[in-house]
Predict the structure.
Amino acid sequence: MNLITLVWNYLKARPLNTAINIVLLALGIAVITILLLFNRQLEEKITDNARGIDLVVGAKGSPLQLILCNIFHIDFPTGNIKLAEAERIARNRMVKKAIPLALGDSYQAYRIVGTSHAYAEQYKARLAQGGWWKKDLDVTIGANVARLANLKTGDTFSSAHGLTDGGHEHDAHKFVVSGIMAPTNSVVDNLILTSIESVWLMHEEHGEEEEHHEDEHHDHEHAAPHKPSPLVPSIEAGDSVKEVTSVLIQYRSPMGAIQLPRMVNSQSSLQAASPAFETARLFSILGVGVDIVMGFAYVLIVISGLSIFIALYNSLKERRYDMAIMRSMGASRVKLLVSILLEGGLLTLLGSVLGLALGHGVLMLLAGMVEETQKAGITGMVFYTQEWIILAGSLFLGLLCALIPAVQAYRTDISRVLAGN
Amino acid sequence: MITVSNLSFGYTAAAAIRFPDIDVKPGEHCLLLGESGSGKTTLLHLMGGLLRGYSGSITLDNTELSGLSETALDRFRGRHVGFVFQKNHLISALSVRKNLAMSPYLAGLAVEQQRIDEVLTTLGLEGKADHKVTELSHGQAQRVAIARAVLNKPSIIFADEPTSALDDTNCDRVIRLLIEAAAQNNATLIVATHDQRLKSKIARQIILGHRTA
């Protein structure tokens, strides 16, 4: 026999009341947990994906779109820029590293990215099997692509135009999987990497059909050009026809952040966008929605707190005699006070533990069922220190709700209650 | 065992009740008789340490009650005194066994399951230990309340109107059980009642007069 047994039996004696209090609190805690896990992981992914990339230079349009398209690969390109113009930026002395990207096609909604090997290095991608792309039409695919699209080394596939499933298929050429990358926990897991030349090849075909440009075949002859382009070495520097989608820039010094964007934006056809600034803007837009849901969760928690208070207050009226009897059997005032506080604390502890489990469970379920969450790399299996704060906070809530009833129990006038008036 | 002298109690000085001096020897049983409003319950609560703030003197087991702090009094009550009330006041959330276990637990004594079984058997409640108290009949519940009062082997058992709601057969039975239980545990039994049927059961009787307002 101890206080925990006593309190537990009291809770068990009112199963419905106890259940509703626990469930109400658990729901509130679960919503907060889901938001916490989702938000934190999303933020981590976003900062991870943008790490080391200071500036994205692409065609004029929405700067947010430029970032969403070229860093996170979840939006369409703003357009193309001339390779020659991109080279001019890349050669600037404030630029430490410049990685060209040529986008446009996808396979089963996984984007095909024409780029240099530096892009894979940027995300510290390592090979799990096979090798990096060498020849035209070789691709190296991310871990999620291999798993979810069921591709192996040596497999061939034809790409579709655009970013969604079922776009116009380029049947003339087939890509060959030359290697699969190990999971990086970044956007690269969802990408199909290839050379820029491969992307051009795919679209030349396209271009020839539609616009009858026949004079471009010499462009990807692999004889070394006199003065290779700093971005695509197989091409002569200053080529006036070739285009890329964007260039990812890393500054040599912080001075770049001040001068380079202004320089780029002053050119009529180019635009520079900072991933850090644009993602911060994105979060402040999303933040409103998150705040509303969060507010709703807090309302749930306050209601559950009230409900616990009312339950304890009412049950205390029924238990006046129990209290007096316990006093007559030798229980001190403090013992009764502690027993009521314990009851409130136990209720909220159960509620918050259930809520945390529910939150993680829902995210695990979501990650198991929804492909998009897997692509985004969000799981229910991570734990953050904030969850301790949630636990401690709800325990505090329980004690707070139990305080008034507990003080009443402390003040029980045994003689008066037992005498029946 | 119990010595009451010069005792008076009142929430205000004007409404104070004066009680007669009482001296009860160990093992002696005693009946407190009086009409409702004569202060029987008040006197019982004062002697049982449930009510404080009296003037005069009450000593139980050679301990002056007013000399104990609130917590010490709680402890003293748990170890030396057992109560039986008119209503049983069992804790309905707990089983019979747990109701009984509360008694030593709250008094700060070790809970001995063997002692619980022993007391239940002497009161004819063997096999009821793991029942819910809500499943018991009124008579059984009353016996559980008696079991709870004697479990810690108290030196004094106070009973407040234990029989007034019962018919003659049950009245007989309850007072017999109380006297037996007290005898088995060498306890003094003090019964406050207006039930005239008990007059023939306990010889020593103290009659409280009407309240002098």
Q: What stands out?
A: The first strand of chain A starts at residue 55 and ends at 59. Residues 207-221 of chain A have pLDDT under 50 and may be disordered. Residues 83 and 243 of chain A are 5 Å apart (CA to CA).
